Amino acid sequence: MRSAARREGTARRGSTLIELLAALFVFVTASSGLLMAYLSGHLLSEQARQERIAYEDLRDMMERVQATAFTALPAIFPAGTANGGGGAPTPYERIVGTYTLPNETITVTHPNATADRREVVVAVTWTQKGRNRTASISTVRTSS
Length: 144
What we know:
By secondary structure, the chain is α+β, with helices and mostly antiparallel strands. It has helices spanning 2-11, 17-67, 73-76, 91-96; strands spanning 105-109, 117-128, 131-142.
């Protein structure tokens, strides 16, 4: 009798394979959830960083537009020309510094270039995770 009781007692001391597999499943599930949360946070952080850079470039360009004489706007900011025309560095790179966003372009448009009251729109376009993104701001300038 004692040997049977001993065998039963010793058989219950360790973990079974099923218990180990269940514990491993719980650990892997929790770890993958934490990893997904980390990756999502990293993606959102990168998106926010790129948007911040885009709005800084917009602000720099708009400050230059507002500081430019009204009559010189069409010459310095050719309407609808991405990056202000050719050359390296491009004229707009001299204003905002080196472009840091993927495939970044800056376009300044002023649709009614001969009007006394002129709307000026500055747009930044870049690629983010294979998708084109655009941010823009506008102001109204007058000759007086």
